[in-house]
């Protein structure tokens, strides 16, 4: 397997053992879960699912930044506690991730509950001579860390010139960054520390929490591309300054999300939340939309593109229905499918830096063949093809709920379909229409083929959003 490593700026052989430890930068829950967030977490969900498919044991950590400037501002605006706001918004986001079939992480550490670990990490950095304290603030001294800029592949001067550097007269150098911030007047949240009351800087939380759950060196650190600098660059500096060893073996980043070709922004009026999408489309439509673009590539969101993904998803569901119909045919057909070939091709593309679009193209090739030839394919091949499609689409969070629905409701629905078939044979069309209507009201779509009728679950949106 090859992974594109941001540090190396190229694809390299994956350095992964049987157990793979992964840390993905999580949410700062001060506003609704949006499409940019969803793009990143859907991408890494599929990556993690594929690693498990290849028999790796994955330990997955995703932090929650429940104390930061944005949350403090929101707290002052709403007159609600910082931790109450973050808890409320995070619960909503996790619920929407569940709808999207994004598997939960093994750990969701919060800043507010890991202050001792954060303080201990800062103390290590200071002991090793890479940080200094001024009037209750602790700063990392960038100039003392020789490898600064190695992730973004730029020197310090370039990085500072291209970024907004917070003006702070207490810092020795403009590029130094805060590890601990002294409490300001009227700030609604703070913690005790050796340097007085205050709170952590943004970057230090990820170093402290990732190392607590995954160790001082772990396998994969990921996030959105806009985190490369300064966040991930600073994580490397402070972690390696604390432990004097490699922090992460592979750095992976998702591409930017735009809306109709423009950066998503509230000021531009094109800010799209996941809740808005789920109110109009089935969650698996969004999963397919994201999977059809390579995780490192930019993806442009539009309602028109989402409609195309819905039609493609319907084709997948119809194929599953036709497989079931083919299995009910009385005659034993002869065509055998070379399913090993499809699996091998799929894996070849996923092993090439998780190239989901090319892997998905292999699945659609199989789907097209089944759609056109299901009545001529052997029952053994049809059954195995169904299992393969459930398994491989499941890596993208697709067909998971349909598989469960067919298992739970299949017999009951098949009996109604048989009654409808008999009614049609007897030209009792009112009864046939009544059964169709009943099934439609229960979220079932019927397709009529010359060989009989089949069904699949309607691609309903999440109404609660």
List the helices and strands and how they pair.
Layout lengths: L1 E4 L4 E4 L5 E6 L10 H19 L3 E6 L6 H10 L3 H18 L15 H13 L3 E4 L2 E4 L15 H6 L15 E6 L15 E3 L3 H11 L3 E7 L3 H16 L4 E7 L2 E3 L2 E2 L10 H5 L4 H9 L7 E3 L1 H26 L10 H13 L4 H18 L5 H16 L5 H26 L3 H13 L2 E6 L2 E6 L8
Write a brief caption for the model:
With about 475 residues, the protein is of the alpha/beta class. It has helices at about 35-55, 70-80, 80-100, 115-125, 155-160, 205-215, 230-245, 275-280, 285-290, 305-330, 340-350, 355-375, 380-395, 400-425, 430-440; strands spanning about 1-5, 10-15, 20-25, 55-60, 130-135, 135-140, 175-180, 200, 220-225, 250-255, 255-260, 260-265, 300, 445-450, 450-455. It folds into 2 domains: about 1-255, Rossmann fold (3-Layer(aba) Sandwich), CATH 3.40.50.620; about 285-455, Four Helix Bundle (Hemerythrin (Met), subunit A) (Up-down Bundle), CATH 1.20.120.640.
Structural write-up:
With 465 residues, the protein is an alpha/beta fold. The protein has 2 domains: 253 residues, Rossmann fold (3-Layer(aba) Sandwich); 171 residues, Anticodon-binding domain of a subclass of class I aminoacyl-tRNA synthetases (Four Helix Bundle (Hemerythrin (Met), subunit A)). Helix content is 47%, strand content 15%. The protein has 15 helices and 15 strands. The strands form 5 sheets. The protein has a 4-stranded parallel sheet, sandwiched between helices. A 4-stranded antiparallel sheet has the order 5-6-7-8, covered by helices on one side. α4 crosses α6. The longest helix has 26 residues. The protein is elongated, with a radius of gyration of 26 Å. The mean pLDDT is 95.
